[in-house]
Specification:
The complex is a heterodimer.
Chain A: H1 2-14, H2 20-73, E1 92-95, E2 98-101, E3 107-109, E4 113-117, E5 124-128, E6 136-141, E7 169-174, E8 177-187, E9 193-203
Antiparallel strand pairs in A: 1-4, 2-3, 4-5, 5-6, 7-8, 8-9
Chain B: H1 4-20, H2 24-31, E1 49-50, E2 67-70, E3 73-74, E4 82-83, E5 115-126, E6 129-140
Antiparallel strand pairs in B: 1-2, 2-5, 3-4, 5-6
Classes of the chains: A alpha+beta, B alpha+beta.
Chain lengths: 206, 144
């Protein structure tokens, strides 16, 4: 027994360290595990970026929609131009805000305002005194999609909302209520296109 | 779940804006639970229940919808719901005068109200169970 034990010890002492083959296998295993870990981290980061970008886009869409809704809410119904009823829509709306009445009971209006798409149809533009020398202009948003989500330019109601070929910003009026639809689109940092469509109804108060 | 409350709030706002687009005198008949008093004929009005896209109804939902519109009503035994000034509901500011005669009585004011308190509730099944949110508002006639 003692002799066998000595022979074993001698064998282990002589074989100390790793062989080249063992080293290569270990490195390969490590590389596989490391690659997997990096891939998981990358996809998690990508998912987080996409979620974050989607939420940010939805916030922006809602904020712009609220700005439009609150601007129109105080308008005088009789001053709305054009007056698009479904299935016709408009990408612009001009209106006057009713400021009250004077001593003679005559309605006093503020300067005209207009909300519309820009010429290239990517921006929502608010204007006061439109087309006048003293026009004021503010871009409320600059990533408007060419058409509403699910809609294509084909003279059909592709998304089934009752409106045909509606643009990324559209207004439809029914009695005193204006339905506003807005669709934004942008690229994420990973190059993916994300789209957010929002819609609201606002009833004109004056 | 955090996203649900703003979405519910937005949906309720749209419902209220849609209601505001109707004549005040028709709103009670259009949005109460009784289909027989609908202005354009029985069963033609939107009614007291509404749905919100993407919201799952709770198990107790009678019609798989999530939203409920209600008014200060009292239902006499064997009768239909009456719009009443003597309803007790602190959230709706009741009892109060609804017809503009400065008197709080026990009559049905479905046809002569000038103030209409409205409660809108949403009950849905969220990720962590049943959720509930309610909103109160009041429509009034503005005589120009």
């Amino acid at each position: 027994m003692k002799l066998a034990s000595r022979q074993q010890r001698a064998h282990f002492v002589g074989a100390s360290g790793l062989s080249t083959l063992e080293l290569i296998i270990a490195m390969a295993l490590f590389a596989i595990v490391a690659t997997k870990a990096v891939m998981v981290m990358n996809s998690a980061n990508e998912a987080y970026d996409n979620d974050s970008a989607t939420m940010s886009l939805e916030d922006q869409a809602r904020r712009t929609l609220d700005q439009i809704a609150y601007a129109i809410m105080g308008a005088d119904r009789d001053t709305l131009f054009p007056d698009p009823s479904s299935p016709i829509f408009s990408t612009e709306l001009q209106y006057f805000l009713n400021l009250g009445v004077d001593a003679d009971g005559k309605v006093i209006y503020d300067d005209p305002e207009k909300i519309s798409l820009s010429t290239d149809e990517t921006q929502v533009i608010w204007r006061k005194n439109p087309d006048a020398p003293d026009e004021r202009r503010v871009a409320w948003c600059n990533i408007v999609r060419p058409f509403l989500e699910g809609e294509e330019f084909n003279a059909l109601d592709d998304n089934g909302n009752g409106i045909i070929d509606e643009k990324g910003l559209s207004f439809v009026v029914r009695k005193d209520a204006v339905t506003i639809r807005l669709c934004l689109e942008r690229l994420t940092s990973g190059g993916e296109t994300i789209t957010q469509a929002v819609e609201t109804i606002v009833t004109i108060r004056n | 779940m955090n996203h649900d409350f703003p979405a519910a709030s937005q949906a309720v706002r749209e419902v209220l804006e849609t209601m505001r687009n109707e004549e005040l005198e028709d709103i009670f008949a259009l949005y109460n639970a009784d289909p027989l008093d609908d202005p354009a004929g029985p069963g033609t009005a939107p009614g007291w229940r509404f749905d919100i896209e993407g919201f799952d109804p709770i198990e107790a939902s009678p019609d798989q919808m999530v939203g409920t519109i209600s008014f200060p009503t009292i239902t006499p035994v064997g009768g239909v719901a009456q719009l009443r000034e003597d309803t007790v509901d602190e959230d709706l500011g009741m009892p109060r005068d609804l017809s503009g005669d400065s008197i709080i009585d026990d009559k049905d004011h479905a046809l002569d109200y000038v103030i209409l308190p409205i409660k809108v509730e949403v009950d849905w099944l969220g990720r962590y169970g049943a959720r509930h949110v309610e909103f109160f508002t009041m429509f009034a006639e503005i005589r120009k």
